[in-house]
Every structure is written in C-alpha cells, then in structure tokens.
Amino acid sequence: MQQQPPPATGKGKADWFIGDVHVDMIVDHPDARFSVGSVHFAPGSRNAWHSHAAGQMLHCTDGVGLVVTDDDVIVLRPGVTVWTPPNQRHWHGAAPDRQMTHLAMSGVGGAGRGRTGRHLGRTHQRGRLPRGRTRDHREQGLSRCRSVRRPGTTTINCSSTRRSPGRCVPRPMTCHL
C-alpha cells in the first residue's frame, strides 16, 4: 500500500479544452487500469469533442454543466453521474453562465496507457447542441426542451406548446440551467 501525494493543479491543454479549465489528477499511476481527475470548468468552458476506448464516468461535484453527444444533452448538477459508453463521441463542460467541477473517470482500453480521449477535429469544436431532448434530473419541464443548432453557441433554446382551436401554437421559453 502507498499513500499518494496530493495532486498538483494543472491548466487544461489548449488542444483539448476551450476556455479556462484546471485539472487535479487524483489517479494517474502508470500501473493503474483507470484514471481519475477532478476537472474545474469556468463558465462556458468545455472540452473538445472526443471519445474514450473504455468509456468514461462523469460525476458532478459542484456547479452546473452539460454532457453532450450527437443525440442527447444531460444537465450536470452536484450528485449527478453520467456514463458515456466506449467510443461514444461527446463533450462536457460548464453551462454558459455557471462554473462546474466534476470527477472524470476513464478506463484505459487495450494494452498501454495512451490518451483516454481523442480529438475529433476543429469542425466539431463549436459546441453545438444536438436536436433532441435535454435531460435534467431535477426539472421535469426540461424533458420537453428542444435544443437548436446554432454555430458557435452553447445555449439551450426551448419551446413549449399550448393548444389553440385546431392547432398547437409554439411559445418560446427559456431553460434555466
């Protein structure tokens, strides 16, 4: 048994992160089959689109953030845990106006350590939210939210409908993360 020294805080690498991000690696031993990092995102900051050969578990400890795949958006709040399966393309980071800290736990796929994620190119860095539903464990109303693709934005636009004689009329609504 060995006691590990406290981790040194490092700035997130510019080719992996957009915005101000700091990382404390909790488990980063060459013999470990997994890594664990405490990652702090300033408001609006996030990582690039990436995937993990052995999957990734994210557990929010503070603030409000998002985990985004091609088809889904999940709101992170303290106590929420999200699993991204092996090779699922995703990004995660803070909400546009809130900071967020999460534990990122990744298995090491295959022989050797290597990178736990892979950068998928500049065209995928815009942080677009997919069309589909937004899931938030606390707010039932967000399950009806529809995100709108707008290049260069990370805001969620929602709409609800009200019944009018013979048709549904869209009513704009703001999602409060």
TrEMBL record:
Residues 110-142 are annotated as: Disordered. Residues 115-135 have a biased composition (Basic residues). InterPro entries: Cupin_2 (IPR013096), HNL-like_cupin (IPR047263), RmlC-like_jellyroll (IPR014710), RmlC_Cupin_sf (IPR011051). Pfam families: Cupin_2. Transmembrane segments: none annotated. PANTHER family: BLL4564 PROTEIN, RIBD C-TERMINAL DOMAIN CONTAINING PROTEIN. This is Cupin type-2 domain-containing protein.
